[in-house]
What does this fold into?
Amino acid sequence: MNFFILSLIKVALVAFVLLTTLAYLQWIERKVIAHVQLRVGPYRVGPHGLLQPLADVVKLITKEGLIPSHVNKLFYLMAPFVAVTLALISISVIPFGPEIKIGPVTTWMQLTDLRIGILFVIAVSSIGVYGVALGGWASNNKYSLLGGLRSSAQMISYELPLALAVAAPLLLANTLSFREMVNYQSGYWLGFIPRWNLFPEILGFIVFMIAGFAETNRVPFDLPEAENELVAGFHTEYSSMNFAAFFMAEYANMVTVTAVATLLFLGGWQPPFPAPYSDVIPILVFALGGLVALYHGLNPARRMDKFTLPATALVFLGIAAIFGLSLFVAPLKPILMALFWFCGKVLVLLFVFIWVRATLPRFRYDQLMRFAWIGLFPLAMFNLLATSLIVALTTK
Amino acid sequence: MTALIFLIFAGIAVFCGVNLVVQTHPIASALSLIGVMGSLAVLYLQLGGEFIAAAQVIVYAGAIMVLFVFVIMLLNAGAETPTFQVSRFVKYLGAILLAFFLGLISFIIQGALPKSEGVLFGTFQGTALDVGRKLFTTYLLPFEVTSVLILIAIVGAIVLARKEV
It folds into this structure.
């Protein structure tokens, strides 16, 4: 098929899935935090608040886009645009799966593979700070300005340990391309331990995740938007879709960080068990989920459960059936397996992000800086030096 | 296609470079500089220097310029007010003279250049591997000297910024 049309289809697919995920990530976040705090979370719009993201989007679009009179208009309007564009762009080099064949078409489950894919993601995320910094400055408001300043300082500081943590697995795999990175991590030690970078690079993984929290401005590093000191930080003056753009950028950054962590440290779409066992796991997971939902649907605790839970069970069992079917249909299997393991790992990491937000309090500003320069930076440096020593000794 | 992309980004680079000088507000100037660096990165990419392009964006646009913008915001520098008034006649005359001199300079440079094929797109050996190998073999001494220079700068910055004991 024409390269252009194929790319267009892939871009449309990825964009649709990504934007839907971003909307529903917020629902997941509210639900998880609510359950951690013994609340129910969004519950009114649709069953279990499932239509809440849709309602939020409609609300944000139909609201009046207010431009305060005291702002620098050009930069004020540019900032959310810059933030969301740069946040969404890095998904273009993330591979979701191996090379697949659909009928006559052979393609990779990835928009494009750059030889410097990892550097590209780092570059884009390092420019991403301009969105926040500009938004804070152009708002002409002291809270916003403080938020923007904090964000720039924080992102410069945490980019160093982040880049150093990324460099160590690059040394092991001797490549800058995500595709080759994942291929390097295929196979198993002793037949059952996956050859993921997580095991030799556990220190690097921890540093990467912590720095990732800071890069995405998430709790416990959400100083730029600390509610109790700065109102809403850099986006205090924003409303309507401009505000939504900042929000979307934050979630897109989260998805990028978790996807990169998955690709660099957790073996991308490689399953954690050898092939015959890992193939049945998705079926087991979805079937078990469906059966649990069915059981609670048959013994309802609330009135609505009689309808919602069996419906959920049906969906889960249907997915399990599709995975079961894929074992016998050759072209379907690599797609579904890769998607399951990749999305599963990303979702687990996203859950950790949300979990941490529900659990940890915020850092104080001096603690934040000290933690980066005295804690993380030497740790990442040590990890990089140790890795390079081992690589230098083992390669000829 | 490559020539078109080159023209577009070269144009953006020149425009941003002029804008950098023309703008009165420091933030607008800093952003123009980022535009220059971004379009330069695209030009490097076209030559085949992919690693250099990425390093350009990460180091210059992503780190150094963030620091610039940070300092400008911290000092809250306002728009510069022109210290002298220029009549309209002088402005127009200046524009014409500038165009004339630019044309003259480019004509002289073109005449002085040896006749060669010039730079071709994508011929530069610029993968991370090539750059690393060159850096640690052929250009080891300049590389180490630069590192020492940067180290001295860091130590100097700490000494200057340190509070008196």
Summary: Residues 2-126 of chain B form a domain with the Four Helix Bundle (Hemerythrin (Met), subunit A) fold (CATH 1.20.120.1200). Chain B has six helices and no strands. Chain B has two domains: 2-126, 127-165. The mean pLDDT of chain B is 83.
